[in-house]
Amino acid sequence: MATDRTASRRIVLTGAAGGVGTMIRPLLAPLYPGLVLSDKATPAGLRADETFVAADLTRPDEVAAVVAGADAVIHLGGYSVEGPWDAILQANIVGCHTLFEAARQAGVRRVVFASSNHAVGFYPRARTIGPDVTVRPDSRYGVSKAFGEALGALYADKYGISVTCLRIGNVGPRPLDVRRLSIWVSPEDLVQLIAIGLDHPDIRYEILYGASDNAAAWWDNARARALGYRPTGRAEDHRAHAEAEQARIGPDPVGDRFQGGSFCSAEFDNDVARAGPAD
Ligand code: 15L
After folding, report:
1. Which domain holds residue 32?
2. Which of 112, 159, 243, 250 is the most exposed place for a label (fewest CB within 10 A)?
3. Which ranges of the chain have pLDDT less than 50?
4. Probe target for ligand 1 pocket from 120, 140, 170, 246, with the most ligand atoms within 8 Å of CB
5. How many domains does the chain divide into?
6. CATH number at residue 131
7. Active-site residue numbers?
8. What is the pTM of this model?
């Protein structure tokens, strides 16, 4: 892959103090020297050679200060699970718009947006989906991620920002349960996808799945592979652990049917046969 990776690029990581930010910070640092970390709170274990700029995503002045002079933004910031509407609205909808708008005004060339599998969580597990399916969010959180994907498309098409939306499954050292055998992504593989978003010369607007090389995958990630993605994590290597954990969790008649799992069954008040796409 020809890239435009250079040492002089200023790259901003929002949500740097969160769970995913904490896992990928040390992997990004050698690839992107001078990475600027941002969050509301100072990340734990901030080293002297790391740069941190505090910002609340709902404060345009603070976000503008963070992205000033930036070439690219990795946007992990916001609410990362289901929550009350007002919290999701502020952090993920207002916050995402504030980020994209500040990026546009600052002349940022690329944004990698942390979307989520929960934008499409109501697809049944029996179906393999690609990046171009209609969104079927399973939560207010999932709706906010679908919003972020749509906003990214607007800023790509109207303002020429290169935008990569990663529909991330579950990031961690290994899959936590049977559902995660299908959607797990190792921190290393996630960084590989982020690097494609930051460096690949052909990206206008892409939706890619944030998943490792999982034999039980529900997602067709051929587009990511065409862009050079070569995942090294294999969920099957951890099957025994995932199945043991699953036995402790027990059945979820609604969640077990859909890709979004417990995000689908939470607050569920429908006939299960009427949920998700009809076909
Ligand atoms: C997500 O989008 C969440 O950020 C994460 O906490 C997990 O719940 C993950 O999805 C998942 O689906 O496992």
Report:
1. 11-268
2. 250
3. 2
4. 170
5. 1
6. 3.40.50.720
7. 141
8. 0.97
